[in-house]
Amino acid sequence: MLLRNAIVVDSWTSPGPIGRGDVRIEGSSIAERGESLLARDGERVVDLDGAILAPGFVCGHTHLYSVLSRGMPATSDAPPRDFHEILQKVWWRLDVALDEPSVRASARIGAIEALKCGTTGLIDHHASPCFVDGSLDVIAQACRDIGIRALLCYETSDRDGEVIAAVGIAENARFCAENGRDDIVAGVIGAHASFTCSDHTLDRLGTAAQDAGTGLHVHVAEGGTDRTLTRQRYGAELIARYQQRGFLHGKSIFAHCVDLTEAERAALQHAGVKLAHNPSSNLNNRVGFAPLWAENPAVMLGTDGIGADMYREAKSAWFRGMEADASCSPGAILGMIANAATTLYDHLGVAGGRIEAGQAADLQVLRYRTPTDLHADNLGGHFLFGMSAAAVESVIVAGKIVVDRGVLVGVDLEREYAVAREQASGLWQRMLAKSGSSLRL
Predict the structure, then answer these.
(1) Measuring CA to CA, how many Å separate 393 from each of 44, 314, 408?
(2) CA–CA separation, 89 vs 75, rounded Å?
(3) Do domains 2-56+353-406 and 61-348 have the same CATH topology?
(4) Strand, helix or coil for residue 290
């Protein structure tokens, strides 16, 4: 396929000169970039007519299973008073009510809505205690069917008992082993948080990660609950528990990191641990703000399941960052966007994130009209104050057009959303039926 007449943004960070050009795709990769490239026999030619061609986004931390929570009824008469109660009264009642059909529906809609926003990859963190074995396969197939790349894990936890924790570890290990050479979907070992994982469970997670040659994707210090309950239950410090089990390295993903000291944050970044910043979720849960906007290759941007619109999330990061510290820069926000892509491609074992020969052909086409010049030096300003998901016209993943001028290719949207609404109704009924039960953790 030959993409002609585009305004090429070859990278979200340190882009080269932004101007008109052509891009040739062969298979799943970019083969050539230049001006006035000649079409080859049998090659599909797409004239972009001055639209912007840029790398697709990756959401650095999300929960596809939360898609069916949109608009759901309250599961308790008394609203949650703090973050721990938000988990107990909302999310842990949702995940325990999930079954195979609802997991499938939520994953498919989540993938669809991500693509429509120019997001070509997801780093997902899944939990469904009543449907653990095979749950990651269901999500993986949904991502393949819709046409999006993904890094998946199961959220191991002791909150539903030792048996479910053991099944969660096994699900992570099996999925990683079976998807080790896949450039579309891969696995990483998953856990909920320190305060819901016993020493025995963390030890077994460490062994599973070592055997799989990967890291741990886990919520870390998402508010003060994690640190406080870790001390009370296990007599240990938060980061020390992970360090003792060999999780502090570049394959691990620590999400949130709100309630960390500067020394702890610096230690994680020095070790190369990827830190997923989720400002919209942190604001919504009132847990505080993680000062993670410094330009650092370890920090990436995620949504924590509040959709996969990285344009919107970037704006949340920018405005909240500026409120906290005027030294926050557009370059730092763009850096978080790029770092999420680097993390996903590293786990998948492919090169990506730039529009140049040999890189993955994961691209978005933006019909963005601007009243001012667009060039490398002011890309951040256009990104934060002009560009949005509404401008996304087409999306390409692994060399295939998956969104063509606003239309999902090969996807019956009416049917997908009808199935999702049906599954959501049943899910909410199961949640309400469980609302009187108690949760140990």
Answers:
(1) 18, 19, 11
(2) 6
(3) no
(4) coil
Domain regions of the chain by residue span:
2-56+353-406, 61-348
Please report where in the chains the tokens 């994130």 appear, as a residue. Answer: 353
Sign of the torsion formed by the C-alpha atoms of 45, 37, 378 and 16: positive
Q: Which two tokens stand for residue 391?
A: 């401008």
Amino acid at 231: R
Q: What does pTM read for this prediction?
A: 0.96
| Spatial contact of 3 and 393, defined as CB atoms under 8 Å apart | no
Strand-pair partners of 55:
363
CB contact at 8 A, 25 and 3: yes
Whether 403 contacts 115, CB under 8 Å: yes
Strands (E), 363-431: 363-366, 392-397, 400-404, 407-408
d(CA 300, CA 264): 17
pLDDT tens string, the chain, 441 residues long: the values are 999 999 999 999 989 999 999 999 999 999 999 999 999 999 999 999 999 999 999 999 999 999 999 998 877 767 888 888 888 888 889 899 999 999 999 999 999 999 999 999 999 999 999 999 999 999 999 999 999 999 999 999 999 999 999 999 999 999 999 987 789 999 999 999 999 999 999 999 999 999 999 999 999 999 899 999 999 999 999 999 999 999 999 999 999 999 999 889 889 988 999 999 999 999 999 999 888 755 577 899 999 999 889 999 999 999 999 998 877 889 999 999 999 999 999 999 999 999 999 999 999 999 999 999 999 999 999 999 999 999 999 999 999 999 999 999 999 999 999 999 999 999 999 988 876 544 445
Contacts of residues 21-24 at CB distance under 8 Å and 24 or more positions apart, as own/partner, are 23/53, 23/355, 23/363
CATH code of the domain occupying 2-56+353-406 = 2.30.40.10
Other CB atoms closer than 10 Å to residue 119's CB: what's the count? 32
Q: Looking at this protein, which amino acid is placed at residue 104?
A: R
Q: Tell me which CATH code domain 61-348 carries.
A: 3.20.20.140
To which residue do tokens 């994961």 refer? 362
